[in-house]
Amino acid sequence: MFVVARLKFGRSQHVHKKVDLFAEFHRFMHRLKVYGPAARTLVFAVALTLAGGLCAAAAPNGETVNAIRCDPAEQVAFHIHQHLAIWDRGKPVGIPPDVGRPVLANCIYWLHTHTPDGIIHVESPTFRNYTLGDFFSVWGQPLSRSRAATAIAGPGETMRIWVNGDPYSGDPRKIELAQHTDVTIEIGPPWKLPVTRFTGWQGL
User: Fold this and answer.
1) What is the pTM of this model?
2) Is 193 inside any structural domain?
3) pLDDT, tens digit, 9 for 90 and up, residues 166-175
4) Is residue 195 in some structural domain?
5) If you average pLDDT over every residue of the chain, what do you get?
6) In this structure, are 26 and 78 located in the same domain?
7) Residue 108 sits in which domain range?
8) Between the CA of residue 160 and those of 25, 157, 197, what are the distances in Å?
């Protein structure tokens, strides 16, 4: 019943309903007075599931984003690649595979990933400029001068950006995705040093 109820809620109520469902589940466990170790493990697992859903709630599900469509098949007229690395206090933030490939919509955005190595694929039916902000919009993650996905600058911390090995001080959303553009974003200190250019293109 819990799973079926989740599927019935519309997208506009998605986040609030997940929170409400977890609260109701929590109260239900209390009423049954089954708060032993196994029950606490179950509640924790449900909480993690809902938290993951909340984080992904902003990811598009087939709708057009920044004039970027999600098509049934990959486009080939304009096909280039970039690399993105994010470091949070010296630790890597993963760029997941299949960004821009919503399972339920069964389509693929013109900006997407295939592998978890940070390589971005631009496969578009038209020749136009795409930006790092476009990729983050398709990914459904925030990008600003103080945040990149889950990497957030706190008090006394800053964001450093390198584009093709050179420091970049502008708006990260405006970084143009040209062929083999290599972007490194760091939140720190501590920092990952030195920043090196990506070389694993493997013929792309």
Assistant:
1) 0.74
2) no
3) 999 999 999 9
4) no
5) 82
6) no
7) 70-188
8) 43, 10, 15
